[in-house]
Specification:
- This protein has 199 residues and is mostly helical.
- Helix content is 63%, strand content 0%.
- The chain is globular, with a radius of gyration of 19 Å.
Length: 199
């Protein structure tokens, strides 16, 4: 990952009255995108946002609380993205697009050791996103008894593809092609999606 500057100017999340929580989340996402979640420091985020070093604790208590809030926000964004896709294949495409557009969220959401996994907001957001995927799988499998396994297969395909994409392991295979188009070509492996068919 690219190294961030040692003393950056206030980030795009610089504090404005009434928006400190949002400013801190935005600054944290900038850090994660550049250097990973291990680089996060509440004191550094306070400096980036232009507030006292104690201010972030009023909103997130500690670093784990901040990362948990980022994960909850990510699942809400993912659920919203999935909700606007008409069927399973396109929900898979939206999943890939979400990862491309929100790589910092994506990284934190699926690293449970960084989070308070029993946090009510996180649990609710994760369930909402999961429900969007399950509803599409149920529709695609027509109530098949193996719908649970089909859901795991669909999630594995979308999540695995997105993870390989974000870690730059698909640069060679994709050869500069559109990742969303390439993902669509893989969906014949999804339930009901034989060669050349949509789900």
């Amino acid at each position: 990952m690219a190294a961030s500057a040692k003393s950056p100017a206030p980030s795009r999340g610089a504090y404005h009255h009434g928006d400190l929580r949002l400013a801190l989340l935005t600054a944290a996402l900038d850090v994660i995108a550049a250097d990973g979640p291990g680089a996060l420091s509440l004191r550094d985020l306070a400096r980036r946002a232009g507030v006292s070093h104690a201010a972030p604790a009023h909103h997130f208590k500690d670093r784990t609380g901040l990362l948990t809030a980022i994960a909850a926000q990510g699942y809400e964004l993912l659920a919203e993205a999935l909700a606007h896709a008409p069927e399973l294949r396109e929900r898979g495409v939206r999943y890939v697009r979400f990862g491309i557009e929100h790589p910092a969220h994506f990284q934190v959401m699926f690293t449970p050791e960084l989070l308070r996994t029993d946090d009510p907001a996180l649990v609710a957001a994760r369930e909402r996103a999961g429900a969007e995927l399950r509803s599409a799988v149920t529709a695609a499998t027509d109530g098949d008894a193996d719908a649970r396994a089909a859901g795991i297969a669909a999630w594995s395909l979308a999540h695995g593809f997105t993870t390989l994409l974000l870690t730059r392991n698909l640069e060679g295979p994709l050869a500069g092609g559109d990742p969303e188009a390439y993902f669509r070509s893989l969906t014949g492996l999804l339930p009901g999606g034989g060669p050349g068919r949509t789900v």
